[in-house]
Structure formats: structure tokens, C-alpha cells
What does this fold into?
Amino acid sequence: MHKIKQSEIEFFKSALAKDSDVYPTSAILQWLKQKNEETKTRIEQIPLDKMRMWHFDEVTGNLVHDSGRFFSIEGIRIETNWGKVASWEQPIINQPEIGFLGIICKKINNVLHFLMQAKIEPGNLNMVQLSPTLQATKSNYTRVHKGKVPAFLEYFNGEKPAKILLDQLQSEQGARFLRKRNRNIIIKIPEDENINIPENFIWVTLGQIKELMRYDNVVNMDSRTVISGISFGSYNEQTLEYFLALGNLSICNEHCLYSTLSFDNYLNDFDQIISWITNLKSRYDMKVTPVPLKLVKEWVYDGMSIRHNNNQFFSVIGVNVDIENREVISWDQPMIKPAQEGIVAFIVKPINGLYHFLVQAKLEAGNFDIIELAPTVQCLTGNYRTGFQEYSVPFINEVLTASDNKIWYSAYQSEEGGRFYKEQNKNMIIEAGENFPLEVPENYCWMTLNQLFVLIRFNNYLNIAARSLISAVSF
Amino acid sequence: MHKIKQSEIEFFKSALAKDSDVYPTSAILQWLKQKNEETKTRIEQIPLDKMRMWHFDEVTGNLVHDSGRFFSIEGIRIETNWGKVASWEQPIINQPEIGFLGIICKKINNVLHFLMQAKIEPGNLNMVQLSPTLQATKSNYTRVHKGKVPAFLEYFNGEKPAKILLDQLQSEQGARFLRKRNRNIIIKIPEDENINIPENFIWVTLGQIKELMRYDNVVNMDSRTVISGISFGSYNEQTLEYFLALGNLSICNEHCLYSTLSFDNYLNDFDQIISWITNLKSRYDMKVTPVPLKLVKEWVYDGMSIRHNNNQFFSVIGVNVDIENREVISWDQPMIKPAQEGIVAFIVKPINGLYHFLVQAKLEAGNFDIIELAPTVQCLTGNYRTGFQEYSVPFINEVLTASDNKIWYSAYQSEEGGRFYKEQNKNMIIEAGENFPLEVPENYCWMTLNQLFVLIRFNNYLNIAARSLISAVSF
It folds into this structure.
């Protein structure tokens, strides 16, 4: 676990390669813009009960596909001793299968390149975003339904040889999905393997992906979660010097690199972090029971969409989608539309000479195991700008009032466009001011970046918002 | 995570201390024997519907306590694409709360001692077994019900100061409990803190606990699971030499020590292990649905107990318990009685000069997350001796035919005596013969002991049978 591995060095070189011999970053942006212009899309909101191939189940009122496949919108009731709201009911997406989010890598000119896809999703802002090589549901990849086989599946299912570099189960949005997880996988094919690249695919370096993440809504959520799992090895003087020699790093990035690589100088050791999580999971319960969608309290179907009484949180809408490229594809589906845009932010602070991230333990209705680790601030649904939220969000002021020189990272990023309708959240990493306290409330904990990378490896520790932010860390 | 810590050195010294200045091991055995003799118990099987304070729920037929507290026996239906049986129904224990299994440590004469308890449980073989300082349900430790406060609770709930050395969520038997977990915790109190030790408590070293585990049914399951989480730090030449200098180790134990401490020379690195788990969890599903106990297929209530049609697996029996020590305590409760004794065994093999353990991924009905990692052989319920099992158990022959010099460890150990009636399983660690294959079926993986210790730290990776065996590893 702790030796520096060849794959970690290769990932790190790729992360430093902010431009590529294959395509400069500007050309990738241009290529995405062109793909966008070539595509004609019409997305129209329609009443949920007018969607082709979807219906409300007679008994439960759950929103289901006529085939029984894909996903459904169901109701749940939550009871918990966590937080200030002891119980509530809400609609949630139920898609009880593990999908593939896979990226193929290959060394080109001695630098690892990632095969990315310009992919259209009906909910995407920017319509076309940069996606993993493969996004496949279980029905796709087990080919139960004999549908069209996704491109490059043969490298992920063992039919063609490839070396697995990363292969992790990662969670989706716990407030919207019921215990949904995906298999996040990166594989490497031999340098001399010439594969046929379809016109909507492109080779990019990890540094370029991170560079593109500085733009709003260019790199999709699936890409971000997959690359968030890439760790860069553990620190010793020798490997650190090696890494420093590789790149021309600014001071800020050098700090970040130290935090990435170092297992020393942490404020809390791993036993303390695990104990912190154990304590919270032991003391707090969450009971989730299914409720027929038509009986979910405080939520109504108004003839068009399912929304909260007070128009808070999100609504379930129906869309009619026409995408015209060379062929016309048309379908209807339900989507989740947020009530307003949100914000997710990590606050970082140098402690013992090493940047630490302030991690929040957060309970969400769809969590697999009560709590997951979230960014310092995560308000996806709260009315954070106006101050009229039901209860205050800790640390939100530090984030909203940070001066420019303390903002490490700030960009709007989309939730997954196959389920979420034009949902963007502001992603930020903020360096805390000097007076920011070391003492934090019981559901917060300071961790180094490398400690976070260790936790990412294991199931259901870091939530998708935290991973989205971590994927943006560059050197 | 990877620096050797003071607590790890102290644990290791305690593990090497096979005798203590406080009580020699023989005196502890004598003390337990005496406690046993002082106690009069009468455990009588009675019909389930004659139990005081318990009843079958009118609607579901579930077996519940009149107060609604403690635990219940319910039915579940399992559907899965794992293994050869696609679906089945069974009774299961539902106890949806996280209990405390806690041990207090203190340095005495410069060696860490563990405060253990001689505890009576109705299902225990040997009646009195060595237990953790504290076994408490959530109702106990949150004191919701104002019952008798368990001894030493104040050190675990923060009322009195103590340093947490280990604090992990660990699973119970997946074939018998529905997603049950306990908080396994070890705390250390200052050397100069004089605490009052009741007569049924005793200070012992970790080496003594491991020595006592060489006897049948002396150290209870709760103790074994707690101490299984103790890791001994990571390897480097310096720390290893330090450890070797501490003890007078035999060659076999030295090998085992290397496997404990070394993070190098593994056959599979951590990314490969995680990928192996991810692949299995992605490909295999398990759907668990509640079924009213009275409708569970192939199980019947015969007027006395609930048993399988063919008397296989286990039965749910009712017991009337009288325990007479200084006072008489009497109660009734349901218990799980196994159809026969089972066997759990790890096969180990030197690979790259380091002992590796052959780990099995195993699906059980009550698992929190589809599979957990089990010993090479785990047949708790199969008719493994006669060869008449429904399907063959891989590697069982290697275990049953191992020559004496290849048996590292062999003892009968009990399941937890509060729920399981006289259930003992043979616990074995066997060194494989030279011809034992390196290639293993897809649901098996070779790991070093230190890799297993890393996995134990995180929720729901190693099952309780694997942990029971690992706790027995001594130096």
C-alpha cells in the first residue's frame, strides 16, 4: 500500500502535463464547442403523466418505466436522531444496480493520456460535456437486453486485455439517489495497441482534465468522480524530491502536493479519524422506509411536476428530448430539477506546515451507511445567498466572503446530466484566514489530502460532492 | 497511518507478555474455573410460545419481546445471483442498534494489561467465559431506560477521561444477524489511576488472552472480535529489529511477525485487493426482503422450536434461564441452536518469503454490503464431516487432513453466548503443503496479515469468523 508504484508516478506526470502533444487544451475546448454546435437538441418540459413509456404505478403512484427497467421515482420516509429535523418524507431515485464509469488510459509520447468522450445528456448545461470513455448500466454491460453495445466495453469486461489501475465502488448523491453506487474504473492499454477512436472521443492528459475543470460545466460529474480516486503515492523525502523535480510548481501548489503525498504531520491520525466516524455512526440512526410516492407528505403532483409544498429543495419533472446529430433520437424521461443552484466548498488551512481539509460528516437520506464525508459546506438545496435558510449553515460566511487570493478554486460544475436537469453547483476550495479555529463542531474533522485519498479507496466514505472537489486539486 | 506509534509498541509488548506479574496464566484459568463452580445455572428448553415476556406477533408471527425492546426473530427472503442457490427464506435475528464491546487497558509494571470480565451467558459452553470489560446495548449506554448502569461505562461514554486506542464498527454473524454491528473499542486509563476492580474482573496481558485462546471455549467471541482489530504497526528494518529484540520468537512466529508488520512483498497490492472486492460487489446482487416469520418457506414451528424441514442449519429455541450466584436471576429468551458444530479455518502459505492468508469473499443473508471477507473455509452449518453436504466446500480436505506440524492453531471457540446456544466451531490456522496452488477461484484472494489488519479498520470488510481467527495469531 505504501510503496510508490509506477502507476502513481505515471498518474502524477499526467497530472503535471497541462498541455499535451496530442491536442493543446485550447483545441479540446474548441473541439467540445464544435461538437456542441453540430448538435441540435430540443428539451421540452411535459407533464409527468404524458411521458411516453413511463407511468404512475396504480397501487403506489411510483413513477416507473413501462419495461420495469432503468430507474423509478419512489417515496421514502426518514427518521433520525441526527440534526434538527427528526423525520421527513421525500421522493428519491431508485436505480438498484451498479453501473460502470470507466476510463481507458494509454501512454502517448511517454505521458499517460485519458480517452474521454464528448457526451450529450439532456440535463447538461453546455449540452456536451467531457465524459469517461464508458458510462454503462448493468443492463448494458451484462448485455441482458441485447441492446446496442457501448463502445470500448470489451476492455472493461475482460474480453480484451487491459491493466486495471483503479477500480472502486463510489456513491452517488445521497439526497437524490437511494443507495446508488457506481464502479469507477481506470484501465491502461499497451502503448503499441492501436485502437480506432470514434470522432466523439479524444485523448487528454490528467493535467488537461484538471485545467478544463477550471471552466464552468465542461467536465461532467462522472469524469470528476472517476479521477478523484487517483492517488499519487505516499511521501518520503526521495519520492517527494522526485516529484518536485518533475514539475515547475508554484508555492501554493507545492503546499498542496505536500498535503497529497505526506502521511506525516497530520493533526489526526487514522485511528482518530476512524474513531470519529465510528462514534457518529454508533450514536446516530437513520431509518428509511418506503412510502408510496402518491402518499409522500408535503409533496404534490400539480399536473406538471412533483414538487414540495413550498417549492423548496427540488422537483421531479418530465422532459421530452430530441437530439439531432446524424440521426434523430427522441425519448421522454423524468428528471430532477433543483429549486436553485447550490454551493459545495472545502475550507483548507495549514496545520503543522501541511494543508488540512475541513471534512464534514453528513447524513443524507439515500446514504448507504448513515453518514458520508462531505465538503466543509454543502448546500445543494438551501437558500444560502439570502440568509433565509431554515437553519444556519456552518462556515458559509468564510466561503462567501473569502478574498480572491484565498480562493484556490472556483467554478460551476454540473451534476450528472442524465438524471439532473440543469443542476449546477458552485465548487470552491478556500484557504481559511489565520483566525479560523482549529477546534470544530463534532461532525467536522481536519484531514490531509492523502488521508482523504486513503478513505476514497474504501466503499462509501467520501460523498460525491467531496470527490468532485478533490478531483479539481491540481499541482 | 504508517508511522509506528507508541500504542502499537505497547500492544506488541503486551502480546509478547505470555505471563504477567499480576496473575500467571494458570491462575487466570483457575480463577475462571472457580467462578464457574461458584455459579449454579439451570438452562431449560421450553416451547417458544411459553416464554415469559415474549410472544409471536399476531400479524407477522415474528417473535418479539413484550416491551418491543432487545431483539426479535423475523423472516427474510434472499434473492441473489451468487452461488448455487438463487433464493431462499430463513429466520434471522433483528437487533437494529449498535452495542458497545469495550476493553479498558492500563499499564501495570510497564506492560499494558486488559481488564477482562468473567461473564456468564446462557448459551456458553463452559458457562463462564472471559469477556470484555463492557458489553452494553445502546439502551444500556444511552440510559434511555434507566436500567442498571453497566460497570465502567463512565470510561466509555466520556464521563471519565480515557485515551481511545482503537474504535471500530465490526459486523456480527451475517448468516444469523440482520446487518448487526457493534462498536469495538479499547481505551487506556492513566497508570496512576486506581480503579476499584469488582471480584469478577481481572487484569490480563494480550499475550495471556492469546494463550487462553489455545484452550477450548475460554475467551468469548466479544473479546476475540475486539482484540482482532489490534494492529502492530508497519514494517521498516528499524522497527522490525526493535520488535525482534523484544521477544524470543520461534521461527514460525517470526514468519508470522513479518507477515504482520510488512507492507512489502505482498502478492496482491491494495489496489488489486480493492479491485477484486469491487468486481464481486458489482457483479453480484443480493436482495433481502422481510417475510412474516410465520410464512417463511421450509421452516416450521413444531410446538417447541422453529426448525428447518430437514433439521438443517439451525433452530430457534426458547430457554428458561436461572442463574444463581449471590442472587437468583431468572428470565426466558429465544436462542439460536446450531444443527451441528462447524469449522472455520485460514490456510496460509509462504509467498515471496512472507506468509499469506487465503481469504474468501462470502455472501451471507445479513451482510451489510453483499459480501464480507471470510476465512478460507467457513462451514458453520454444513455437514462437513460426512461428505454428504449439498455442495462441496473448497479446500476442506486440506484443512481436515493437515498433518500436526502444519497446524498453527486449533481450538474450539464459542459464538456469542447471549444469542447462540452451545454453538462451538473449530477454529484452525493451517499451513498449506508445498503443492498448494497459487491460483485460486475468483472468490478467493491471498493477503498478508498486515493487509488484513488494514481492512479490519474499515467498516464491514472482514467478517466475524475471519476476525476470530486473526485474534488468535500470536508471536
Chain B has three domains: 6-39+97-246, 42-91+291-338, 251-285+339-471. The longest strand of chain B covers residues 314-324.
